[in-house]
Design goal:
4 domains, 5-stranded antiparallel β-sheet, Beta-Lactamase
């Protein structure tokens, strides 16, 4: 870098000095010619002053031996009266340019080729009057080469000056180059220290105002960059600490299925090597079926479960929605083996408890119906028996829902018969069953559209019946329920919208939990078991259907189920 800078400075200096040298030669040449021309004009005027009579022409005989200088006297007709350089007769000079200027009273220096001397000559002519009144033209001439002689006298001096300037510039350039190279080295060292994390600012000197200002600005930018890098590193360290200690396995994948990031948990789940950056994600997951499943859903939002070497895994895929061009999808894998075991125990308990309760509840319901059918009870006893009957019916419904939910959770319904199911026909059947309850509250139920889905008809009936039943239970007097069915090449959609009391948005995420009630004081008034949406959620999961709930207090609730084809 130093040599290159030095060479550039020397080259620039050489060019500059050479140009100045050339301009100097030209200036000397012009100045010499100008001085000699002025002198030629002055000497011509002096010669005119010395010539008063024709006898005075002899005074110029002293120039007869000077081959570089000549004196010529010409009359007004152009005839040569005297010539110092030769005694031979000369041709008429009336057409000579300098003579014309003199006769016109506008004398000028003229440079032209002389046929007499066969070389370039510089002429100056001036008209004057002799003592006897005769007018003549006195012309002086000098060889042009004599003027150029001054240049050759000065040229060696200019060359010496040129060499001296060049040597001086070499010394100064070397010093400047060393100084500049040192500053550049300091800038490079400062940038390297910034990259290494041990930032060292550039030393500045206020005695160098130009460099001082520039280096100060560089220091300010470097200090700002250092602070920003430090802040980003701290944030990155915190994020890496969090990602390394969460129980979920997280892996970021690009569009070419290469791993961009994988945390410690996902490495532990699959027992892979820790250095996975840039590798295909098959190096992480040694189960081809799971790899294919994830590959099919990259770039979209997807949730599923998978059994892996005796473990129950929750697989969540999310499409990257940020500004990163590298991250295409994020895969979150959670080991839910323990949660599944607890869930199975709970399901088994519900199933066993429900089964054990089913017979006694059926006996209570049957006996209460028998007692109510006989006219053997007074009014007070009838009310108590009627209450027993009502509670036994509600308990029987709860047990039925618990058994159904337990079957769904344990996968006992996966062997159901799949066939095309007309959702509109099922909706009409459900509407017919809910007719008494709808009439009590004067609720209008309307069905629009058509659509089919390949599934077990009983499961689809459970979905429609639970959604419509909830819409009726939580609707207002003179309310409305709208069932909309639509179908296209990609999906079949069922939507149940009501004009009921609505639900606060903060409670919506928990609506599908078993026995969850937003307002527990309304549970007995509205009826139901609190398991309807939990059953709907599990059936949707069985068919990979998408369940969504929207609600606004005082406006109503809309529940949608999308079945992919």
């Amino acid at each position: 870098m130093k040599k290159k800078t030095l060479f550039q400075i020397l080259a620039l200096t050489f060019v500059s000095v050479t140009v100045m040298f050339i301009f100097g030669i030209v200036a000397v040449d012009i100045n010499a010619k100008s001085m000699l021309r002025e002198r030629l004009a002055e000497e011509t005027e002096l010669a005119c002053a010395l010539v008063q009579t024709e006898e005075d022409f002899a005074n110029f005989a002293q120039y007869s031996d000077d081959v570089a200088f000549r004196v010529t006297i010409i009359d007004l007709s152009g005839e040569v009266l005297y010539e110092s350089s030769t005694k031979a007769p000369l041709e008429n000079h009336i057409d000579r340019e300098e003579v014309k200027y003199a006769l016109a009273g506008n004398s000028q220096v003229v440079e032209r080729y002389s046929q007499t001397f066969e070389c370039d000559m510089t002429y100056y002519a001036l008209k004057t009057t002799l003592a006897d009144g005769k007018e003549i033209v006195v012309r002086l001439a000098i060889k042009s080469s004599r003027i150029n002689g001054y240049l050759w006298v000065v040229l060696p001096i200019l060359i010496v000056v040129l060499i001296g300037c060049f040597i001086f510039s070499v010394v100064i350039s070397n010093l400047l180059s060393a100084k500049m190279s040192g500053k550049i080295t300091e800038v490079g060292d400062s940038l390297r220290s910034l990259n290494d994390g041990n930032y060292v600012p550039i030393k500045t000197n206020s005695g160098e105002p130009e460099l001082y200002s520039v280096l100060n600005q560089i220091n300010e930018l470097n200090a700002s960059a250092h602070a920003h890098i430090k802040s980003m590193k701290e944030t990155s360290d915190k994020l890496n600490t969090v990602l390394a200690n969460v129980s979920q396995g997280i892996v970021a994948i690009d569009e070419n299925k290469r791993i961009i990031f994988a945390n410690k948990s996902i490495v532990d789940i699959f027992g892979a090597s820790e250095n996975l950056d840039g590798k295909d994600f098959i190096y992480l997951i040694d189960d081809l079926a799971l790899c294919e499943k994830i590959s099919r859903h990259l770039g979209e939002n997807y949730t599923s479960e998978y059994g892996y070497k005796g473990k129950d895994l929750s697989v969540v895929i999310r499409k990257a929605e940020n500004n990163s061009d590298d991250v295409y999808s994020i895969v979150i894998i959670t080991d839910v083996t323990d949660e599944k075991a607890v869930q199975r125990q709970k399901s088994d308990f519900f199933a066993n408890a429900s089964h054990e309760l089913k017979t006694p509840v059926a006996v209570m319901q049957g006996l209460s119906e028998l007692l109510l059918s006989k006219d053997i009870l007074d009014e007070g006893s009838k009310k108590q028996v009627a209450r027993i009957h009502s509670e036994s019916v509600r308990l029987a419904s709860l047990i039925t829902d618990m058994l159904e939910l337990s079957k769904l959770e344990n996968g006992d319904s996966v062997d159901a018969v799949y066939s095309p199911v007309d959702i509109k026909a099922i909706a009409e059947e459900v509407a017919s069953g809910l007719s008494p309850e709808l009439k009590k509250k004067n609720i209008t139920l309307e069905i629009f559209g058509n659509g089919t889905v390949t599934a077990d008809g009983k499961m689809i009936f459970e979905i429609v019946e639970n959604l419509c039943s909830n819409a009726a239970h939580y609707n207002v007097e003179n309310g409305k329920i709208t069932v909309t069915i639509s179908e296209n090449d990609n999906e079949t959609k069922l939507t149940v919208a009501d004009t009921g009391i609505g639900i606060e948005k903060e409670y919506i995420p928990r609506l599908c939990e078993r026995f969850y009630r937003v307002d527990k004081s309304r549970s007995k008034k509205t009826g139901g078991t609190g398991l309807g949406l939990a059953i709907v959620k599990h059936i949707c999961a069985l068919y990979n259907a998408e369940l969504s709930i929207e609600s606004e207090v005082g406006v109503g609730t809309t529940v949608s189920v999308k079945f992919a084809k």
